[in-house]
Amino acid sequence: MTEKNEFLYPQKWLSKASTGDRVASELRMQIIAGLIESDAILSENKLAAEFNVSRSPIREALKILAAENLIRLERMGAVVIGLTEKDIEEIYDVRLLIESFVFERLIKIDTSNLVTELSKILEMMKIAIKYKDADEFSLQDVLFHETIIRAINHSYIRMIWDNTKPVMEAFILLSMRSRIEEKYDDFNRILENHELYIEAIKTKKRELMIKSLHQNFDDVQGKVDDLWISQQTLSKGVEKSD
Amino acid sequence: MTEKNEFLYPQKWLSKASTGDRVASELRMQIIAGLIESDAILSENKLAAEFNVSRSPIREALKILAAENLIRLERMGAVVIGLTEKDIEEIYDVRLLIESFVFERLIKIDTSNLVTELSKILEMMKIAIKYKDADEFSLQDVLFHETIIRAINHSYIRMIWDNTKPVMEAFILLSMRSRIEEKYDDFNRILENHELYIEAIKTKKRELMIKSLHQNFDDVQGKVDDLWISQQTLSKGVEKSD
DNA sequence: TCAAGTATACTTGTATACAAGTATTATAAA
DNA sequence: TTTATAATACTTGTATACAAGTATACTTGA
């Protein structure tokens, strides 16, 4: 048995989370990072032993991951589905879909407070880059989009966001970590893109928003390659758990 | 304590469901039907006693309902949010959104099998009406849309469906039950509308689909009024659980 | 009557126990 | 060697036990 003292998921983001949430966050990262391979079978008992907790929070975690389509709950054990390139594309389909919807609503309301809020987040992102803090950058990046989505006060759009957020966050986190050192310039492009997004919301120009969203997506396409590479790196020297 | 021998949710739909799923289904119906009022506080222990099960499946059920935004999990007790008219509108926003997306994908693929499948479901719906079986009709109605959505094989669109389906199913169920007796003619309109939808998929004509979707939504607007009326009827003579 | 403080009866989160069912493995027979 | 059967070691689902924390209500003092 291997004692794990290091976590992929930033523990400080889990200040008041339950054990189940913590386990879910960590397993999610391990699955998306490829440390736990697809088709692997997870047993509640083994996981409980591994994380040094009881089966209750493990069950909770598995339910969460199943809802996120990262695993499949079967009779005997939970089968890891993992995150394919197709999944990433699909997540961005959904983001494109809901953010477009949100934008149409934003056009009809006063967005000055939102723009202020977004500007603040953007500045935080700049600081994060300055100090090469990939985690903080990812946090703010996700928060940026969450802030936009929450602005229209739509329970079910927010529900969709809540369901896709964890996977997206984990994915962005891994992607940014692998890029912060080598591909430093990428981040300026991301910043510019977010500035464009704010501008679109401020001026309520649909074309700008579409442009920004698509650029963001194109940017992600690159992230995918990077992540797959980083997965291989991460997987090296890690014993298989079968 | 009141012993409940009758359930709002059709038990035969839960053939291989866990106790937690059963409890969730029943609580969902009671909340949407208004038997459990908004702002009511649900305690795990009380629910466990009421349903004659342990806290484990109750916890599972509450997690499910929280994900559906029907309740809010707080420190002390789960607070019932309930389903407002705004929620119904929002659910249909989402349906409009994802079914439009799905249609764009359907245009690009061979839909002959899908059309056959949908025709079969439509015939089932007709039989259900013939025998005034509101439950069966609702089941097929929901299945109709689920079949369309599943046809494009998109994990994350399906995820959105999975998350909104239970609430929508419960809502449609209650609505149809209240209408099957008095507003019999409504059902023919619904059938025609579904025929239009099939035609849209067959001919891949966008306008037809939009028309059908909007008619469906207008139809739902009427459902809302009916449901609120049926809620008051249902609520009569039911003691409050505070 | 009112205020403060303490005791009590709740709440959830986690751990453990038990039961029912399934896959695997070993054993025995042909 | 192969097949059938039985035993065993797993699996999850549910029930129960325990611990930590919170709100409420009561008691005690003025």
From TrEMBL, chains A, B:
Pfam families: FCD, GntR. One of its GO terms (molecular function) is DNA binding. InterPro entries: GntR_C, TF_FadR/GntR_C, Tscrpt_reg_HTH_GntR, WH-like_DNA-bd_sf, WH_DNA-bd_sf. It comes from the Bacteria. The keyword Membrane does not apply. Residues 17-83 form the HTH gntR-type domain. Keywords: DNA-binding, Transcription, Transcription regulation. This is Gluconate operon transcriptional repressor. The lineage of its organism: Bacteria, Bacillati, Bacillota, Bacilli, Bacillales.
